[in-house]
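Input sequence (78 aa), recorded before submission:
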Amino acid sequence: NEKRYLLEGRVRISIGNLKEAEASLKKALEINPDMVDAYFYLGLVYEAEGDKWKARKQWEKGYRTDPDYAPIKDKLFR
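Predicted structure, token format:
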């Protein structure tokens, strides 16, 4: 389910497997397009890869899903 893919993505980010993390997080969003955590972590993947534009796009999608999600607000408005 989507929570498993989210956890998988987070673990893969923590060990530096960004491509695998991206794939897991995208699967989570396929299952549940309202999963704000997945947008946040997918943004972190793109940020780590140096693609600030793609990162910001993910955080904006997450913000539209849940404008009160603090980690995304920090990324967009700090």
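Checked by second reader. Helices lie at 2-14, 18-31, 36-48, 52-65, 70-77.
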